[in-house]
Amino acid sequence: MTLERWAPWWGLLVVPSTFLANLSVAYAVVPFACMTQRHGLLHVAPAVGLAITLVGLALSLWSLARLRDAEGQPVRVARRFLAGMSLALVMLFLLATLTQWYAIFKLSPCVQ
For residues 7 and 93, which has the higher predicted lDDT (pLDDT)? Predict the structure, then answer.
């Protein structure tokens, strides 16, 4: 019951916060990666962000599947709405995380 209640919030709060932290870490690590020529450090933050986003995706899908037959019960309908919004937001940030990681693969961080 507790996981069903809190699972949508992972996608609504944790995943967007992780993306913003990922973006901040990526900007902070670039000077060090250029100075030491260790570009592998740039891939750590997106990998962690992708893992957290995939956990959010799994939790959102699980929560939505559990609340599939929520007609007529206002509390369960509201939770189903949150689970649907969580899934939509997780998918958006999954695309954003993959796009950011693709840019890290394709662009050199040391452009002057």
Answer: 93
